[in-house]
Specification:
The structure holds two protein chains of two kinds.
Chain A lengths: L8 H7 L7 E14 L2 E9 L2 E3 L3 E5 L6 H8 L7 E6 L2 E2 L5 H11 E4 L11 H12 L3 H15 L14 H14 L4 E5 L7 H18 L3 E5 L2 H4 L4 E6 L2 E6 L8
Parallel strand pairs in A: 4-9, 4-10, 7-8, 8-9
Antiparallel strand pairs in A: 1-2, 1-3, 1-5, 5-6, 10-11
Chain B lengths: L1 H12 L1 H41 L2 E5 L12 E2 L1 H10 L3 E16 L2 E10 L1 H7 L6 E4 L6 E2 L4 E2 L6 E4 L1 H6 L7 E7 L5 E12 L10 E5 H7 L5 E2 L1 E6 L5 H14 L31 E5 H4 L1 H12 L1 H26 L1 H9 L4 H37 L1 E9 L2 E6 L6 H26 L3 H6 L2
Parallel strand pairs in B: 4-11, 8-10
Antiparallel strand pairs in B: 1-13, 1-14, 2-12, 3-4, 3-9, 3-13, 5-10, 6-7, 8-11, 9-10, 15-16
Helix pairs in contact in B: 1-12, 2-10, 2-12, 2-13, 10-13, 12-13
The chains are: A alpha/beta, B alpha+beta.
The structure holds adenosine-5'-diphosphate and magnesium ion.
Chain lengths: ~250, ~450
Amino acid sequence: MKEHPKEHSKEHLVKEYPVINPDILRTENIIKTYKSGEIEVEALKGVNISIKKGEFTAIAGPSGSGKSTFLNLLSGLDRPTKGVVYLKEKPISEMSGNQLSDFRRDHIGFIFQSYNLIPVLTVKENIEYIMLIQGISEGERKKRVNDILHAVGLMGMEKRRPSQLSGGQQQRVAIARAVVSRPDVILADEPTANLDSETANNLIDMMRSLNETKGITFLFSTHDKKIMDRSKRLIILKDGRIDSDKGLPDQLSL
Amino acid sequence: MLILKIAFRNIFRQRRRSILTALTMIGGYVLLSMALSISEGTYGTVIENFSKSYTGHVQLHKKGYLNKPSLYRTLNDYKSVDKILKTVEGVKSWTPRIFSTALVSKGKKTAIARIVGIDPEQEAKTTSISDKIREGKFIDSDLDTTKDTIKNTVKNEVMVGAGLAEILNLKLGEEIVLVSQGADGSISNDIFKVVAILKGDIFSVNRNYCYMNIKVAQSFLSLENRFHEITIALDHYKYAQQKANILDKTFKDMNNNNVGNKDNNGNNGNNGNNGNNGNNGNNEIEVLPWPVIEKQFYDTMTFEKRGMRICLFIIVIIVAIGVLNTVLMTILERTIEYGILRALGTRPFMLFRMIILESGFLALISIVIGFILSFIINYLVSIYGIDYPAPMDIGGFSITTMYGLIYPGAFSTPAIVTFFTALVVSIFPAIRAMKIIPVEAMRMN
Ligand SMILES: Nc1ncnc2c1ncn2[C@@H]1O[C@H](COP(=O)(O)OP(=O)(O)O)[C@@H](O)[C@H]1O
Ligand SMILES: [Mg+2]
């Protein structure tokens, strides 16, 4: 609730004292069909969800259940075959080209399974990247990088290159990179899948504490039972459909 | 911007490949620079030899003489032109000439000769005529070197071209009879002593030439104090056009003065057969550079230089293939990375810029190294030269050693060519990178 990027100050004014907590992300009957040659795979068969600000939600399901597909559609990286994705009630399927790029830059934070840091940039530069393309001033960037390095426990490592970090450390940089530009929601596709279970737990703890202290909205996929248990809300995908959805927003204390 | 940093660091990331690409570009640069330097150096030598041989860099005539040489298209008092030429910077030396045609006979043999009246001192300073004497000595000068005064009478001496000597079977010291028409309409004839026989030169221009002192020629042709041409040598042939313009303007500005125009009426006895040349136009001086005067030679030079374009083209291809290969490989290798950058919200065009920047950086580094290398090489070649395996014939000159010329174009042209080739070749791969679809790129993980 406190984290509003300056760029969104207009929306911010409107949403500062909402009567109801509006949806950040909402999908309407999403269908995604992959075609490869003659074969058609229906990865998502009509998915409806809404994500509200401050959620810490896991999307779980066995491999091939459509988790990645779903997250890609939410972030505008891919387009649904049918249905609409709304970000703050604006349909993102109507955006194109640079608009979509800017949309991701300003509203969506990403954490990937394989960290995906830019190898030629240092920790600090990786974290700064999105803020730079957003055009945030140097002073503000410095401040935010400092804060986030503290929050993810990477102080003193800002000059290192990704290759000089462990997997867990790299993923913490990725979290920092996703958080620092203050997006509306952070989407994480199996962020812990490449980590050992202890590191994975620590990482989820860190995400959860960011969620609780800074109100950052997280939506992450996992097929790890222990990780699912750390979520506030758990959506289970099965065969392209929502199988169960426990801990809906109205059950949360917001 | 961070994009710049990424681009720059990427160069050092795949060091081996970057070095290979840079070497290609450096190689291309050095080759092109050397080719330009040597070609310019060689053509410079040829042009200098050519102009030194006879034409000079710039010539001054009465307007229209060059198109239609006529005995009557004369200017007056070449000494008065001297004062003006002295004021123009870059003029090294100059020499007046007078021309006509004559029948030459020795005994029963007769031939046609071109009479060239020259000022021996000035001519020797301006052209390489003294080097061309095969046997004999230079014609009599009107300067009395012993008393340092000007003589009243100059001997009837001639230096004859190799062709003329052959036809008439001339030997040194023999006498010949010249018959020609004077400007006053009279037939003039006189006896001349052969004091020198010239070498045949590669242009065969002087084969039938018959050089004599300009004073002798003036009196023989009844052209007292008049001349047809002044040939001017400059510090460098490349200033020809510029200096010709300056001189031309200077003389035009002096239109009202008496330059070359002192005795407007002195020579008008022949106005009858010379209506278009009533001497009212002695001030119509025209100054032209060698490319205009010797158009054919100039065209030959230009044509030979055009061969350079093939060289240029080959180098462009080498650089292009090298760069294209690298950039394409790079893009294949970094598809995932580009996908991530796109996913994080980088606009496609920024990726495009990044790739172009990478090529641009690499090109700049290569150009700097290429410049240093080729400067050293060109410098050495300009001093020591490179011997041709066999003498080469360029514009009628046989060249055995080629020397480089250090001039800005030898470095700027390769720089521009290398840089733009690198950029242009990167456009296609950069567009490909722009079109990378993030989801697909990242699925490659
Ligand atoms: N690009 C694609 N082309 C064809 N089929 C795909 C593609 N991406 C995913 N799929 C299929 O869609 C289904 C869902 O995949 P995915 O979203 O990756 O599931 P998850 O992330 O839960 O493992 C799977 O059957 C998978 O094979
Ligand atoms: Mg997946």
